[in-house]
Amino acid sequence: MPGGEPDLKRIRQRLEKDARDLGFCAIGIAPARLDEGVGAHLKGFVANGWHGSMKWMEETLERRANPARLWPECRSIVVLAMNYGPETDPLENLRRKSRANISVYARNRDYHDVMKGRLKTMADRLKSVTGKDVKVFVDTAPVMEKPLAQAAGLGWQGKHTNLVSRQHGSWFFLGSIFTEVELNFDEPESDHCGSCRACLDVCPTDAFPAPYQLDARRCISYLTIEHDGPIPHELRKAIGNRIYGCDDCLAVCPWNKFAAEASEAKLRARADLVSPYIADFLAFDDAQFRAHFVGSPVKRIGRDRFMRNVLIAAGNSADMSLIGPVAGLLSDADALVRATAVWALWQLVGKEGVKPYLDGLDMNEPMMQGELKAISGRAVA
């Protein structure tokens, strides 16, 4: 307490009550340090180039592997989880080829907005009790939330590299409160994956070089969200109808039999984002895109990258009613959209059928050249 030694037991009880009241499903406390092996694993990930175009991972490598580098005064880290479990199996929508599939976490409000205010509320109360400074993070700083959550006893990083909990499965977000107070730490959680490899085997693009290792360059979540250029041709068919993220490795995890549906209304899926028609998105201009996804994580990738993803889904749909809307995007203002529209038409109408659509297009554009090479059967640069 301010002016004296803090009552750590009472602080813990208060934190647990606040967490329950504010909608968090789990809480744990870890020291402000990570095992050296965590940093070594991260360095190997970057050294292999598995981070793709996420250059910020290189730039923040040292701080990310060591919480003390981020804030030297920090002594304890309170890690919290918020459930976002789906109402239905997200894999079912993958069979509806004329429908688009959006990752479960992005079917309503942005979790950063939902969680951050509540974490600040908890942090302010902790500061008022202890008189010590606090900082709040929700995936917005170089913080390794998953290793910290494992150190705090919330779960373990599974073979798919995501956190898994024996009580809550895999469907939850993580946030943290850094504090100058040295609280009582929880015991780290151990690995309970055993011999299971369901998450590894289900991956459509073989993004796992080995258990507990991820090559983001082959991960559909990375490709549809973080990657801002053309998606490699050899991976496009495997993307199917996934237009924002991928849930496959989470959805097949056996521990999700203990998962519950999202209790927070803002994290429950909007009806229009559960299984939307691809055709509805093909007509979006920038204003329509922004209006439709206001408050959603999808909005952050922008309309053009979103349309690239939708066009790949259209090309994979075998839905001939999409030919007209796709052809209309050949004259889009964005070069990436135009080029991906060529690929989508090629998939829908075939190599010979696509040729008439190319008349009048500037096929000397670098991205168009990549599509021509693919259509002609030559190696894509």
Structure report:
The chain is α+β, with helices and mostly antiparallel strands and 381 residues long. It has helices at residues 8-21, 36-47, 55-59, 61-65, 67-70, 111-130, 145-151, 198-202, 220-226, 233-239, 248-251, 278-282, 286-292, 302-315, 323-328, 335-358, 366-376; strands at residues 26-31, 76-83, 101-102, 134-137, 156-157, 163-164, 172-179, 242-244. A 4-stranded antiparallel sheet has the order 1-2-7-4, sandwiched between helices. It has a two-stranded parallel sheet with strand order 3-8. It has a two-stranded antiparallel ribbon with strand order 5-6. Helix 1 (8-21) runs antiparallel to helix 6 and helix 14 packs parallel to helix 16. The longest helix has 24 residues, at 335-358. It is elongated.
Spans of at least 5 consecutive residues whose pLDDT stays below 50 are: none
N- and C-termini, Cα separation: 63 Å
Task: Describe the largest sheet.
Answer: 4 strands, antiparallel
- Beta-strand percentage range: 5-15%
Number of strands: 8
